[in-house]
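RECORD TYPE: inverse folding
INPUT: structure tokens
STRUCTURE:
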């Protein structure tokens, strides 16, 4: 017992001694660091009494404030020594307690454990949490508040936590950054003022959080959802608690509040918000946010126009030379407002007080506003371009010769409109059909009419057979197609033509819908005039077209209500057939491909190309025209031109696109006819304006090179009659000559 009492007395003495030391050191530390509490007078007195010494040292009064870093270092060393002593004392106390418990308390603890039947120690007694180090108890106070103090905050006992000594400068920081391999993972803790090096786990955690992932590696963010409630109605309710009374009874408190608000609004104590009326409109300053320094850097900026300064004319007492006399005033009144030099008449007043209000003030301000916001605020870059450079580089017409330029012959003899002309394959004869009911054969070189055949109706179309081995002409009038043998060739050709037309052995019986077409031979006077065969159609025929070999003939009967619009006749077998079950659109023109088994059908707005062997449509050309009037196929077969009643001529390149390669709008009225030359790179178009335009159109074998289209000559000579001009145009088969027929009952040859 004595031994225990002696140990307790020693421990209490040691504690009192440590408490005294600690309080003395704290008082000394507060005296050292309390710079602002000391007055200069007190410091002088202390320096006078004690010779400026404290603890054996002389302290300069000015050094306390000027040398604050040194004082801070001294305070840090004192604090470290104090902590070291406290730890030693705590170690002594703990060792004494452990010895005492080891000697006296061990048997009792063992007995208690035995009595409790071996119960375990409480697992939360020595729990170590992974929470933050909370030695600094300042809470959420900004650490910037401690910037000018030597301490960072306070610990759990209320003592100050002083800042650690940081003697590194920028150079030391740079060397540490270069040499320390853990510099990149070192962070500064503001609450403790120390540098902390992150571990691998902490770095991995930071990276996961920066990338937007969860901090826990084992957390599954795509866990299957557990649907606690489903769309199925449950048999039993989730809760069977009865509803509250307040859920179906109006609230008296809310009623009282609402009544108070209504009373305040009625008395005028509370005014409801006013709805701003935007009927008057809002006005904005366009240049309120403009900065002249920024706009000056823009080279293209144009500042707002300035008002010219007033001159002598605006004065209320201008010099007499600025006043108008009667002539000048009359001239000023006659001029338009835009042409006047002055918007007002200068007047003279005796004093400024007698000057009236300016009547055009509001109007002038309004014009000024228009000048401000309608003025172009950006300079336009003017490009110095030579106007001749904008014109496409086309060859000169004289470099594209030969082409027809002058009118050489006029063929007269018809008394009506000449709707169609055709030149024989040899180029020696010309056939023409007119509304006077006659077909005339002319000699090309002499313009002499060799033969006239009366067919008894207005002729819509005439076409020579392109085969040079026969001499045949197809004539379309009303609902008939006549095949004429004019006997304008040698005997061998004439006999071959007669043999072809009189071959009855190859004729086949006609069946089905084609039975509407009847073949018959001419007799009597018609036979003497040269008519050999007559093909009767169910409707009026507007055009006939031969195949290149001369055995097949196509006829066109435009009609919306019938599928019989195009028929193809075989002369050698006297057989007719309808190639289409139904026609899409009103057929205007047809033509055979010069080389391949293709058939061109032109409707009002498009051109369809059919393969006769496969019996299918291969291409559809969009003419971009309202009504196609005529069509011609290039001798090579890869290009097509179409004329339309809306003054356009479309050139199609079949290898390029289904849309026009070039649209020519040279005519002022409807285009009636178009034609290609058989050998020369020429094509022509005839119009109701009485002109024929000849163009040069070179087609290249290279598919990458586009055709060269150049207008070279406008040929005039036909007179316009009843708003009709030139009705048909065709080229000579071998010479660069062009024939045209018009509403003036003449045919003209241009060479």
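DESIGNED SEQUENCE:
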């Amino acid at each position: 017992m004595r031994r225990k009492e002696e140990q307790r007395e020693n421990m209490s003495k040691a504690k009192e001694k440590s408490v005294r030391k600690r309080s003395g050191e704290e008082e000394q530390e507060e005296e050292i660091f309390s710079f602002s509490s000391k007055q200069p007078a007190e410091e002088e007195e202390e320096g006078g009494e004690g010779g400026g010494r404290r603890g054996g040292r002389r302290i300069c009064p000015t050094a306390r404030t000027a040398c604050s870093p040194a004082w801070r270092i001294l305070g840090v060393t004192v604090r470290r020594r104090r902590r070291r002593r406290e730890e030693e004392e705590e170690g002594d106390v703990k060792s004494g307690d452990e010895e005492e418990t080891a000697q006296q308390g061990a048997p009792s603890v063992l007995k208690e454990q035995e009595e409790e039947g071996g119960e375990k120690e409480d697992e939360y007694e020595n729990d170590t949490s992974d929470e933050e180090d909370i030695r600094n108890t300042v809470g959420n106070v900004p650490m910037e508040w401690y910037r000018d103090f030597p301490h960072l905050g306070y610990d759990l006992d209320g003592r100050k936590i002083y800042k650690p000594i940081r003697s590194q400068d920028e150079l030391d920081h740079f060397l540490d950054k270069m040499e320390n391999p853990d510099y990149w993972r070192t962070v500064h803790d503001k609450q403790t003022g120390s540098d902390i090096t992150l571990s691998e786990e902490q770095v991995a955690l930071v990276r996961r959080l920066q990338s937007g992932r969860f901090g826990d590696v084992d957390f599954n963010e795509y866990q299957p959802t557990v649907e606690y409630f489903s769309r199925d109605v449950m048999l039993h309710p989730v809760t069977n608690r009865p509803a509250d009374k307040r859920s179906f009874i109006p609230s008296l408190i809310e009623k009282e509040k609402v009544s108070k608000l209504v009373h305040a609004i009625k008395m005028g104590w509370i005014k409801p918000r006013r709805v701003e009326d935007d009927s008057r409109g809002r006005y904005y300053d366009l240049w309120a946010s403009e900065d002249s320094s920024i706009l000056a850097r823009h080279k293209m900026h144009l500042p707002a126009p300035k008002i010219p300064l007033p001159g002598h004319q605006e004065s209320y007492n201008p010099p007499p030379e600025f006043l108008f006399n009667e002539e000048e005033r009359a001239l000023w009144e006659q001029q338009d407002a835009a042409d006047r030099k002055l918007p007002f008449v200068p007047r003279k007043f005796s004093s400024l007080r007698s000057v009236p209000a300016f009547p055009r003030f509001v109007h002038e301000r309004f014009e000024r506003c228009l000048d401000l916001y309608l003025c172009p605020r950006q300079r336009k870059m003017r490009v110095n371009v030579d106007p001749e450079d904008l014109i496409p580089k086309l060859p000169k017409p004289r470099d594209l010769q030969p082409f027809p330029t002058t009118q050489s012959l006029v063929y007269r003899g018809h008394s009506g409109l000449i709707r169609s002309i055709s030149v024989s394959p040899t180029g020696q004869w010309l056939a023409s059909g007119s509304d006077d009911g006659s077909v005339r054969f002319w000699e090309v070189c002499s313009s002499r009419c060799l033969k006239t055949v009366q067919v008894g109706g207005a002729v819509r179309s005439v076409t020579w057979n392109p085969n040079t081995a026969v001499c045949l002409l197809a004539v379309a009038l009303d609902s008939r197609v006549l095949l004429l043998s004019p006997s304008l060739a040698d005997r061998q050709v004439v006999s071959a033509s007669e043999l072809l037309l009189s071959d009855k052995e190859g004729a086949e019986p006609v069946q089905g819908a084609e039975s509407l077409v009847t073949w018959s031979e001419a007799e009597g006077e018609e036979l003497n005039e040269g008519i050999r065969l007559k093909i009767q159609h169910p409707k009026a025929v507007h055009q006939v077209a031969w195949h290149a070999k001369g055995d097949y003939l196509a006829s066109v009967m435009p009609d919306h209500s019938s599928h019989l619009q195009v028929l193809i006749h075989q002369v050698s077998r006297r057989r007719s057939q309808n190639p289409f079950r139904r026609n899409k659109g009103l057929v205007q023109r047809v033509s055979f491909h010069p080389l391949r088994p293709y058939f061109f059908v032109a409707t009002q707005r498009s051109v369809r190309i059919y393969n006769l062997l496969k019996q299918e449509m291969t291409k559809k050309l969009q003419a971009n025209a309202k009504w196609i009037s005529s069509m011609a196929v290039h001798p090579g077969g890869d290009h097509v031109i179409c004329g339309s009643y809306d003054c356009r001529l479309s050139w199609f390149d079949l290898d390029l696109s289904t849309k026009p390669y070039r649209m020519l709008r040279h005519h002022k009225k409807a285009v009636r006819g178009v034609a290609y030359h058989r050998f020369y790179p020429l094509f022509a178009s005839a119009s109701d304006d009485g002109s024929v335009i000849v163009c040069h159109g070179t087609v290249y074998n290279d598919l990458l090179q586009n055709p060269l289209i150049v207008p070279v000559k406008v040929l005039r000579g036909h007179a316009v009659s009843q708003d009709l001009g030139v009705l048909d145009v065709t080229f000579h088969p071998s010479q660069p000559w062009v024939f045209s027929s018009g509403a003036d009952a003449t045919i003209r040859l241009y060479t």
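NOTES: The radius of gyration is 58 Å.
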